[in-house]
Design brief:
Elements (H helix, E strand, L loop, with lengths): L27 H10 L3 E5 L6 E7 L6 H9 L3 H8 L2 E8 L8 H10 L7 H42 L38
Antiparallel strand pairs: 1-2, 2-3
Amino acid sequence: MARTPVAANPYVGKNYIDDNQNMEVPPAYWLQRLYDFDADLVVFPSRYRPFAYVLARRQRHSAGVESKALAATIAQPDTKLCLERGLVPVSLIFRTGVTWSIDNIIAQLAARDIWAHGGGEAAADLADAAEADAAAFEAKKTRDDMYNRSGDAWRSYQARTGASNLLFHDRQKPRQERRTDQTVPSGSTAGSGIVLASR
């Protein structure tokens, strides 16, 4: 895979850290779209997963004592590099196919952006409302299913015990028109389908 010349890409060093000569540098239009979406996002080649890129975000606040203590306990090289450079790891990115696609990444980032949804409390309220809607949908689905099953069971019970003289299945068949050109024989048993035999 041929590497894009680094000098031709103005976003190298801006939002791309080129520290692996074996990995292809994302094209300028890709890095520009990412920068336009969020200038704090940074991409660099993964040291842990082959052919993967790490998407990280610059910390807005300085690293505290907790972050420095945490860095001493982490062995994963990508996370360790993020903490050393003042970045917060967001996700891994894999290039699939022959072109660089940024639209799906930006769509996923926008959907997960808490600040775009009004902050932590508003995002929590949206999540709670979505959970309540899902629970209400499941409850309605269960109720409808139980209602239909109980109705079928009741009709089956009535048909088996003779409590009802309705022919449930016959009601669903299309009604046949009576032909007027047929003559009906007279007599009480004629035409009724009963065959009487003498012994």
